[in-house]
Protein 1
Amino acid sequence: METLKNNRGTVLIYVTVFLALMTLLTGLAIDVGWMAYVRTQSQAAIDSAALSGAAAIPDYNFNGTTGQIQARVEAFNGPANDPSSNNVMNQDAGIIGSQVSQGGNAEVVTYNSTTDTITAPVNPAAANGVRVTKGFNTPLFFSRLLNGGDPTTINVSATAVIRMRPSLPVDLICNPDNSACPPPYGSQIILNVTQTPSPKDDSSFTSYYIQNASASEFKNMVQNPNSIPCLTMGDPIEIANGQDNSVMKDIRDAFDQNKKPIDLDNDPSTPPVLAWPVILPVVSTYFNPNQTSPVIGFTWISIYEVNTNPQKQIKAIVGGGNPALGWCPPHLRR
């Protein structure tokens, strides 16, 4: 009996297996590339929504309502053929600006630069960011053969943190565990800028990042507020670097130059008050006032009186008007 030694057709088997593997690998490569493309589009849409929403944080700080944030988060949603709208896979991104707890995609947060943490704000005045999270469902071309045809979800998140540029080298001191820290909108406050601050005081000078600042450096910040750095929650600043009467006189002069009629009580029956809207950093009473302390928030006040003698005082109403300085461009944290 003769043994068959014909090997014709063996190569065809190897070629068939090789082509099948190449087809599978090509398909997976196409799917991975498509997922990367969808993630890139999704991330851009989420980034835009978060940055837009963060621009409304100052309104939320004072009124505690998220209407403006929701409107801004959803502002770029639009038809797929609109090049200015957020599109993912040639479709409207469909980002919902309401709170996550209400079935939306956005939430108000507090970002602390010292600890690099993102948490829920203790109160509206402590919020400084908006986090937007959304899952985008995308069909795949070849991998669906392995998962039964179900679409894959691409989860994307971005947090936009707003930064503030204070208007004066002066801070507000308050208890962070108090719901009135910073004071609510419409509150009348008197800032007593003392020579030797103690934890019981409500204000002091701050040179921000300049240690052992001189009177001339304080005066420069009053006269050139653009020299004051942009800050976010948690940034450490120098406080209680002494007090000079000439600095208070410069603040009084700046008040005289910048005051304008403002309706502080929102009552049309009463005449406007001459006031100067500014933004100040807020620091905690829990820290020694003669050292570096982290910023725990910001307050927007309208100064209506500055006294230099005998007691150094700044009298103001929280809110009112529109500060000429204040909001720096937000930045993203993921």
Note: The first strand starts at residue 87 and ends at 88.
Protein 2
Amino acid sequence: MRFLLLCAFSLLAACQTTHQVTPPPAPIAPQGRDHTDLGVIRELATGRTLTPQELVERLAVAPRVLVGEQHDNPDHHALQLWLLRELAAQRAQGSLLMEMLNPDQQARVDAAQAAARAGQPPIDAFKALAWQANWDWSVYGALVTYALRQPYPLLAANLDRAQIMQVYKQRPVLKGEASTTEQVQATLLDDIRQSHCGLLPEAQMPAMLAVQQQRDRRMAERLMAAPTPAMLLAGAFHVRKDLGVPLHLKDLGAGEGNAVLILAEAGKTVTADSADYVWYTAAQPEQDFCAQLRR
């Protein structure tokens, strides 16, 4: 009997053992490496600092994980790849969705995944996927190539250009209480003005707001339709709990079971209103995009 009890306890301990994560990748971006927040992971509701292990364990139980990035920061894409690998070691991944893929690329993605799973990955994934040049392949390539080899689907989460132009010309009525408040829309409008350096005519602002929110609504719809556990990779503004996709998930009846992680350059502010977790990384050199636009 004593032997049987010892065996039972041993089996129980084995079942409770969790996969130990590998060390996260070293910083790539050149700035912010001496910042006190570099590498810090914070649970924003409590202010508690988490280890990479604790973060992965928390994200592993969420049906939908939304990861916000700064598009040009290579550290963010390296951490996304690391997260995908570590989460898959904890439990089977259901799907990966990307803002950087449009629906008109989905057939190409499906074909490339089928070929990769059959041991014949595309020689040139950039060309095979008709990857859009505005998304820098040098920072996305490793992540996308990895995703093509996985058993779970890689899915488009954005609108096609033709769909965006249709929204711009004829703004659809956005339904829901969370995403349509005056505060949400005013904040989004202010961000659109700033991100376009104040150069957009005011008459275009309602159409630009409609495009932003319809993109967020599409990402929410695609997340809800995707096999779970699902991960969405998108710009940090898109995944914000107080402005983006999570509000649309709430409006569509899927407000629970979502975890938001924002990857932010050290020194930037991320609050509990906008995310559940923040991971501070090294920073890219600042660029004056407005000066470039004005030229």
Note: The longest strand covers residues 258-265.
Protein 3
Amino acid sequence: MKTRIIGFDLARAYAIFGMFIVNFNTVFGSHSNHNGLSGFLNLFNGNSSTLFVMLAGMGVSLMTNRNDYSLEERKTIKRTIVKRSWFLFVLGLAFYFWWPADILHFYGGYMHIAVLLIFLPKKYFLYAAAAAIIIFHIILILIPYETGWNFETLMYNDFWSVEGFIRNTFYNGWNSIFPWIAYFFLGMYLGRLDWKDNKTPKRVLLIGLTVYIIINLVQLFASSLTQNKDLLFYLTADYLPPFLPFMLGTASFGLILISIFIFIGNKVGESKIAKILVSTGQMTLTHYIAHLVLGIFLLSLITGKTLSYDLLKETPTNPFIILTFTIFYFLLSCTFSYLWTKKYKNGPLEMLMRKI
């Protein structure tokens, strides 16, 4: 069990680093430049967020990975998850005033819905994931995806209206429940697998590689396969909108990474570096909030840019500066995490969530 947890936390640490790159680059860099170093930074778009959601689903599943819970124990676990979901939902909505691309309130939605399925056999998690993707594509036929969006500024115009809030939350927000909860359900399925068996990460890695290669080959030759602009857009769209090819590509990449970090955890689980990364991976909530406040504030001082989400309208910062700062900030975060966990079991915001 120890090795298993180390592998998952190493994956979380990687996802944190990827999250830093994505958000610092989104605010200060160019999210539309796919050449050179900017192109490298943009490769992290989608993959880090999807891995986070998958790992969150795994975490919830691992909380309930026993067959002998009493009825009262099941009720207690469900209440705990529901309380945490509402904490994240409220915290995310409050944080939205600062960071309109917030994912926390969506996490709360994923967890709240997941409670309905938490004690079912793991095959139902895959059924639910497929259903979430299908529901999204059905809504896509009924409501134009761009409804409510200003894609030039990446702002959602009517988020605080009832109609806009429901639309954003369930359909076309940054990480809307449909289809993003599919990643959460996939993570729940992975959490029920026997990771003590060495065959499990090998099997998951093989499946992930196969799907990832197929999707990337389709996208690479998409322009040769069809001249239909709508179909071409469907096959190659990135993050917004999250069409099926994007979902399969990022989910399969997540499977690859999780398997690889399980292998790494098995090899270096007792090393000093691994322990530092594990402590970082155990404080995802703290680092999520901190990098969007402290990290963006520090980078704005370095670049001399006005501190606001409207930085998207300004001239992009040199991608080398963004990458260098991201590495420095990640090392700083790792150092803080390691020192903090020497005295406390959970990160600052993780402790607050548990107390509330």
Note: The mean pLDDT is 90.
